[in-house]
Design brief:
The chain is mainly β and 768 residues long. 2% of the residues lie in helices and 58% in strands.
């Protein structure tokens, strides 16, 4: 199969561009400029009469103005890939006319590891018939420092372009010009980074502070479903230069103004924007603490129109479903401390919003005595009756595992930790611990600096021990409390792990072992007593324990490497026949053997090049096993829908799983999903379909045999014509668009409104 990887421009018809003016009053007029573009999506059906569609995750996921052009009813099947396969939904698009729909409805391959990111997965569609679609895109241009008035239809999303160059920080004001409607927005930059999001209702004036990203920014805005008229907004982006709070300095101020005033003895409400002030701070060399406190007037309105909000942002990113700027809101703040360090030189921004004469103070200070001790106990105490916080800086010189145990005497406490990696992503997690060391969890800690803080109950008293040991690429390691191995892996392989106790002493070391993929996701955990018995000249077999522990790993891991955490939790003299003498902090040495056993697990493994269609035959030999597994890797085209036919001989039970490597981790589509569209019988042939998420998916065929004769599995895989739901052409400011069309566009004046609609018909598909 070959992929046509270009746009075929069928026609470019400039019918008009919509630029209409809304006259408010002769003395106050707002020029509303809106560009309305129409794109015809031309689909090619397969020879079987079905139309197959492939929709990748895209910045335009929120478009709700796609329409199918139907001349007759069409049944559909949607395959939304998710963490454990796909979710298949069915229905009918009814004719005649245009049917609105969203192609993009994506789920994610999620990760439980702190160091990974969720991966959005594509969606496939199967339409039982032929059709084309129309996409409308309504856009407008925003300019820094100017107020732009827009009028939009409810239920549709509109896009505003905002070029940002040389601006450190932005306050974006959105003024809703009507009550009785809810609306929402999201801001993205040119690299598909989510910068900020929010919304409002009942004629609110909302101000969103944000640290801009790269290039032209896009404001997606849409209004509620139960509003019959046009929805109007005033939008004003303003460049601001945040005030710096140096270390050791305090900022004090008041949020003036209110939407509620008293006029002639009556309370009068006037819509106003909240007061917004942004400050910045950093500390590249020392652990620091930003403290804030708020003083609210004793007499406050029953419902403050502008609640006080404290917003925290920075030039770092957060791990989410896609790239997202770090951003937090704290409504109605009182007083608190936030520990930080500019680990990668990043700057933090604190924005205070509100009114009603709320007083506030911000203090930036250095934290003294902040180094947390490793591998030794330290006392933690809160002498106050109220909850207290304490911050620490933790420096990990090399990739390590950490286990935290505690002895507490009164109260309880919680530990939190974060770091910023070299790619400017903030990673945050809770530090879990246990009062019994053997039960304390492993925590994967890549080399770097970490900010660690603890929240303690009033009158808390306890001891903690942060046990940290390095991860080695060698096959031997020595430790007293914790350590680990890093081994190279491919996500789809199976392995056998063997750990051997090397100490030439009469000891038994009960050893806890846990495997993690490269994101820190736990895969397998176990514990085992390893023992050596030394008679002075040679090793002897201990009558109760072995000095070697082997475990086959049939859990799929990750590409690049897998981590093996090891910890001796109990070391004892084993010459007395019972493990009674515990040796605290005894240095234990281990060796590791790590072998690939993938080929040993499958009866046969092979590769099939699909091209325009391909087949492969597995011979089921005699003598064989009642239960057998076969491995078939396919070379094909990502984003194409395929038909699979299976002919079986000497098989009375069959199932298949589809494995696809997504970003270094295996996505599994199980047989319970694949058989959603299966038909046929074991005797006459099975037929089912799947969508390729990668170029080298693998089928695992599991069969139960009668062993009455030599059998076979004949596999035939054929591509079906698949259409790509592609991104729309790049969106540019209206002025740039008109500059290119001014010489050729015919303008049509209708009732004082100038309209210029751009119609583009294009086709992009995968075909044989």
């Amino acid at each position: 199969m070959s992929r046509i990887n270009k746009k075929t421009l069928l026609c470019l018809l400039v019918v008009a561009a919509m630029t209409f003016s809304l006259l408010v009053t002769p003395a106050s007029a707002a020029q509303i400029t809106m560009t309305d573009e129409t794109f015809e999506r031309v689909f090619e059906a397969d020879e079987n009469g079905h139309t197959y569609l492939y929709a990748e995750p895209t910045i335009f996921d929120m478009i709700t103005s796609d329409y199918l052009n139907l001349e007759e009813d069409i049944d559909y099947e949607r395959y939304r890939n998710d963490n454990n396969g796909w979710t298949r939904s069915t229905g009918t698009f009814s004719s005649p006319g245009l049917v609105p729909l969203e192609w993009h409805s994506h789920d994610a391959l999620t990760t439980d590891g702190v160091w990974g990111e969720n991966t959005l997965l594509p969606t496939f569609w199967d339409l039982d018939g032929e059709t084309n679609a129309t996409t409308n895109r309504r856009s407008f241009t925003l300019n820094m420092g100017q107020t732009t008035t827009i009028a939009i239809e409810s239920e549709l999303m509109y896009i505003g372009t905002l070029p940002i160059v040389g601006v450190e920080f932005v306050h974006l004001t959105i003024n809703s010009l009507q009550d009785d409607i809810e609306w929402e927005f999201i801001i993205l930059d040119s690299e598909d980074t989510v910068i900020s999001y929010g919304g409002g209702m009942e004629g609110d004036i909302v101000v969103t502070p944000f640290k801009p990203g790269v290039g032209t920014h896009y404001l997606w805005i849409g209004a509620g479903f139960d509003y019959s008229g046009l929805v109007m907004f005033d939008i004003h982006p303003q460049a601001v230069t945040p005030e710096t709070i140096p270390i050791g300095n305090v900022v004090q101020d008041t949020l003036p103004g209110s939407e509620l005033t008293v006029v002639d003895g009556s309370i009068v409400h006037t819509e106003k924007a909240p007061t917004v002030r942004t400050y910045k701070y950093n500390s590249p060399t020392e652990l620091a603490m930003i403290s804030y406190s708020f003083n609210y007037p004793e007499i406050m309105p029953l419902a403050s129109p502008h609640p006080t909000i404290l917003s925290l942002s920075s030039d770092t990113y957060m791990a989410a479903d896609g790239k997202m700027r770090m951003y937090y809101d704290f409504p109605f703040p009182l007083s608190d401390n936030y520990f930080y360090k500019s680990i990668q030189g990043e700057t933090y921004y604190l924005t205070v919003m509100g009114g009603d004469n709320v007083q506030y103070a911000l203090y930036n200070s250095v934290v003294e005595d902040f180094e947390i001790p490793f591998n030794e106990e330290f006392l933690l105490q809160n002498l106050n009756e109220d909850v207290a916080k304490k911050g620490y800086l933790l420096t990990v010189e090399e990739d390590s595992f950490m286990r935290v145990n505690s002895t507490f005497y009164s109260g309880s406490c919680d530990w939190y930790i974060y770091t910023v990696t070299e790619d400017m992503v903030m990673r945050q997690f809770t530090v879990n611990y246990d009062t019994y060391f053997p039960d304390s969890p492993f925590i994967y800690m890549p080399a770097g600096e970490y900010v660690l803080f603890v929240e303690m109950d009033g009158d808390y008293l306890g001891e903690f021990e942060f046990n940290i040991g390095p991860i080695t690429d060698d096959l031997t390691i020595s430790m007293t409390r914790v350590g680990g191995f890093r081994v190279p892996t491919n996500a789809i392989d199976f392995f056998n792990m063997t750990i051997t106790l090397l100490n030439e002493d009469n000891v038994t070391a009960t050893t806890k072992v846990e495997l993690f993929d490269r994101t820190g996701r736990s895969l397998v955990d176990t514990s085992y007593p390893l023992s050596n018995w030394w008679d002075g000249s040679s090793f002897m077999d201990h009558p109760s324990f072995d000095n070697t522990f082997s475990l086959p790993i049939y859990t799929l891991t990750s590409d690049e490497f897998t981590l093996i955490a090891v910890s001796p939790v109990y070391v004892a003299n084993n010459t007395e026949g019972s493990l009674t003498d515990t040796y605290a902090l005894y240095n234990v040495s281990y060796s590791l053997d790590w072998d690939i056993i993938t080929e040993d697990h499958y009866t046969d493994m092979d590769t099939l090049n699909i091209g325009n269609g391909g087949s492969h035959v597995f011979t089921l030999e005699l003598p064989g096993e009642v239960s057998e597994s076969y491995y078939l890797e396919m070379n094909l085209t990502k984003g194409v829908w395929y038909n699979v036919s299976i002919i079986l001989d000497d098989v009375f039970l069959f199932s298949a799983d589809l494995l696809q490597n997504i970003g270094g981790r295996i996505h599994i589509t199980p047989w319970t999903d694949l058989d959603d569209n299966m038909f046929g019988t074991l005797g006459n042939g099975l037929f089912f379909e799947f969508g390729a998420l990668t170029e080298n998916p693998v089928f695992i065929f599991d069969v139960m045999r009668s062993l009455g004769t030599e059998g076979n599995i004949t596999v035939r895989v054929d591509p079906l014509v698949t259409n790509l739901i592609e991104d729309l052409p790049a969106l540019v400011p209206t002025t740039d668009l008109f500059a290119g069309l001014a010489a050729t566009a015919p303008y049509i004046a209708v009732g004082g409104i100038i309209i210029a609609v751009v119609v583009v018909v294009y086709l992009k598909k995968f075909k044989k």
